[in-house]
Each structure stands twice: as structure tokens, then as C-alpha cells.
Amino acid sequence: MRGPFLHSSQRTAAIMRQVLLALAPITVAAIWRHGAGAALLVLAALSAAVTVEAVLARASVSDGSAAVTGVLFALLLPAGAPLWLAALGGALAVGLGKHAFGGLGKNPFNPAALARVVLMGLLPVYFFAPAWRWDGVTQASPLSKAAGALLPSASALLAGDAPGALAQAAPWAVLLGGLVLLLLRSADWRIPLAYLAGVTLLVLVLPAGERMAGHAPWLVGNPLPHLLSGGTLLTAFFLLTDPVTAPFSPPGKLVFAGVAALVTVATRLYTPYPDGAALAVLTANACAPLIDRALVWRKLRRAG
Amino acid sequence: MNHYDASFLAIACALMTERPRRWWLAGAIPALAFALTLLPLGHFAAIVAALVACTPPLRPAAAALLLAAPRYPSVRAAAVSAGLYLCGVAVLAALLEDRLDQDAVPAFLRGTPARLLVLAVAYFSLLPVAHL
User: Fold this and answer.
1) Could you tell me if A284 and A257 are in contact, meaning their C-beta atoms sit under 8 angstroms apart?
2) Is A234 helix (H, G, I), strand (E, B) or coil?
3) Cβ separation of B128 and A286 shorter than 8 Å?
């Protein structure tokens, strides 16, 4: 027997419309900050995702799930990414992330995060440039541990005034979109809350890694750059809350968010990777069935 | 072959073949292989590790032999490799059994290809572990 066995009364199309509505402020903010290039990236990923959906499952194009995947993938891309990368990622997200596993509701991994991670592994040059071009100047990401990285001020971080992915253009827009998602009850509030609390707590308690010694001391014991840079906020509200890839029980969701927070922070502190949010999503997705199993067994054992 | 690749091949081996009851015993191999490198055995350390991996309790697990293959540069690398193998098998076995609906998977991907796809995604997701 395979779950999920509980179904929401909300129809897929209605949920996807709500998610697209919540993604709107982030997309608008990214286009406002990065200009037509960002709009083209979103368009390329969106059209590729919808085209692949139309080819593989014509009936489900109208439910909007492919559009959500396309937009989410585009928001995970660096602002200067080539258009073909956006199109390839959009196609991969729907083709490999969703339909290779049986389509909507059957995918074990979040499709947008899967496409981002697979492309990051195959084409690292587009994701791990030592520095990002920003307002005509070459800068390192605030999460970079490379020499030359700088810590922007708190106000600059909140305004998104730092190099990074499209979703980092305006953290306040991600927060706004996330609140919309929670108010519409399209996402479970436990996951973003537990994930953001977990990231904060772990950054405060974990010691510095040897890789960052002398390079990025502000990443140790300072949760602000970890919360406002990288994919933390988008992950908290939009990637981890995908009901298909998260555990079913409320305590399971807390453990799931904790696993994601641990992977995010450990990747940032102890590996050369500047950000681990998308990797954390897939790792937590993989752990979801084991978390469900462990909690169900515990419940059954308690029941006698 | 580095220890990260070896761990993933061992995970693949444990998940693709009939998993022995005591599959977790293979998790001790990286520590053993590292300990052997501390002895003055030279290149024979790998051979001894391979022989240990083939002892009766581990023999059905080809995973043990794969975990004996790389040269572990530090105790941390051995611990990471063992942890990766043990967690990887436990997590991915649950994922493959509970969430991967083989009947829903397209016919040309059903069975081993779908399992390999999950393993490939896990390989890319955990790549930072190779740098720990």
C-alpha cells in the first residue's frame, strides 16, 4: 500500500492558482530589480515546463502545476543565467522531476529543486561562479566563503541588495508571498516556522568550519545573512511545503523541517558550497518516508 | 574511486540486489579499511580490507567490498563514508518502498531505471558530503 491516503478537498487547479498568486510578488520584484533579463528567464522556464507537460500529459496542463514548477525553477536561477539553462531546467523539472516518477502526486522529490540540483551537478560553472556580476560590479555572494566576499548591511540584505538568485531580489517579497500562501492555507505553517527556527538555532550553536576561517566570519553565529540570503526563504515557504514530498503527520513535518535546516546550515558552514537550500530540500524529501515510518511505528507501539 | 563514490556504489549495490539481513555490518568496513592504512602493510592494506569484507557475515554484501575499495585519508572520511552508507540505505530503502509507485512510473523507466534515477538524484543532492 502506498500513501498518501488523506486527500484535501481543495482541487489541484485551485491550489496551484493560489501558489502562483503567492509567487507573483517575488516574480515582480525579481523583474523590477534585474530587468527584462529576469522576465525572459521566467518566461523561458515557464514555457519549457508547460510545453513538456503538454507533450507528456496534455490533460493536466490546465491544472497549473507545470506553471508553478517552471516559475519556481526560474526563481532558483542566478540572475545572469543563460536562457537555454532556464528552458532546460523547466523541461527537466517537469519531465524528470515529475513525469519520470508517475506525474503529479507521485513525485518523491520537489521537481524544481531536483532540476536545480541536477543542473548544478552537471553544469556547475553556471551556479558556482566565484563571483556574481551585480550592478556592473563583480561581487561574491554574501554566503560565499571565498576571499572577497562581503557582508552587506541588514537593510541591504532585507532589500535584496546583494548578488544571488532571482528569488533573492527581494526577501520581503518572498515573505509576503509566503504569508499569502499561509493565509490561503495552501501550505502548512509548521514547516516554514520550524525550518526558519531550525536555521536560526543551528547557526547560533554550530561552530565555524575550517573552510571559512578568515574569509567569512559573519556567517558564524549570525543568523541574519543565513535567513535573508541564499534560497532560505523560498525554500521555507515554497519548496518544503509541497504536500506531495513532505511527511503527512504534523510532528513528521517538524522533523522534516529540522532535517532540511541541518543540511542547509551544515552545507553553508562546512562545505565549499555557498548555499545548500535546494540540496536540503531533496535530502529532506528523501527522508520523508522514513520519518513517516518512524512516527507511525512509534504511534502503533504506544497504542499497544 | 573516492570514498563518496564508493559509498554510493555500495548503497546502489545494497538496494539493487537482495539485501542481506545484516546489511548494516558493512558500515564497519570504512573504519576497518582506515585502521589498516595505519599499519605498515603498504598496498596490502587494500587486499586485507577486501579479504575482511568477504568474511562469512559480510559475504553476501558486495557493498562491503565496494566500501573496502577506496583509500580513506582520515578517520573523518571513514566516518562520513560509513554514515553515508548506513543512512543512505535506510533512507532510500524507505523511499523506494513507500513513495515510488512503480505502477505509475512510465513503462520504459519501471523497475531498475526508476530506482537508479532516485539514486542519481540522491548522489547529486549529497555531493557536498564529499567535501566534509
Assistant:
1) yes
2) helix
3) no
| Nine-digit cell string for A147 | 576571499
Lowest mean pLDDT among A35-49, A104-118, A197-211, B48-62: B48-62
3-state SS assignment for residue A127: coil
> Which residue from B94, B109, B121 is facing A290, i.e. has the nearest CB?
B94
B116 CB near a chain A CB, below 8 Å? Answer: no
The residues near A298 (Cβ < 8 Å, ≥ 6 apart) are: none
Q: Residue A1 domain-assigned?
A: no
B14-24 tens-digit pLDDT:
888 777 777 88
End-to-end CA distance of chain A: 22
Chain B residues within an 8 Å CB radius of A102: 101, 103-106
Helix (H, G, I), strand (E, B) or coil at A250: helix
Range of the domain at A65: 12-303
Amino acid in the structure at residue B36:
L
Structural domain containing residue B51: 3-131
B23-49: pLDDT as tens digits: 888 888 888 888 888 887 777 777 777
A67 touches chain B (CB under 8 A): no
Residue B47 parent element (H or E):
helix B44-53
- Structural domain count of chain A: 1
Cα distance from A246 to chain B (closest Cα, Å)? 11
- Reported ipTM: the value is 0.85
Q: Which three cell numbers stand for residue A112?
A: 524544481
The answer to whether B109 contacts A282, with C-beta atoms less than 8 Å apart, is no
Contacts of B118 in chain A (CB under 8 A): 108
Q: Do A102 and B90 touch (CB under 8 A)?
A: no
| C-alpha grid cell, residue A159 | 532589500
A138: three-class secondary structure by DSSP = strand
Evaluate whether residue A3 is within a structural domain. no
How is residue A44 written as a grid cell? Answer: 523561458
Q: Number of residue pairs across A and B with CB atoms under 8 Å? A: 85
* Closest Cα in chain A, distance from residue B73 (Å): 17
Q: Is residue A5 part of a domain?
A: no
On the 0-12 / 13-18 / 19+ scale of CB atoms within 10 A, A159 is middle
Say which CATH number the domain at A121 has: 1.10.3430
First to last CA, chain B: 17
Q: Do A273 and B122 touch (CB under 8 A)?
A: no
How many domains in chain B? 1
Judged by DSSP in three states, B19 sits in coil
Please report whether residue A162 resides in a domain: yes
The one-letter code for the residue type at A153 is S
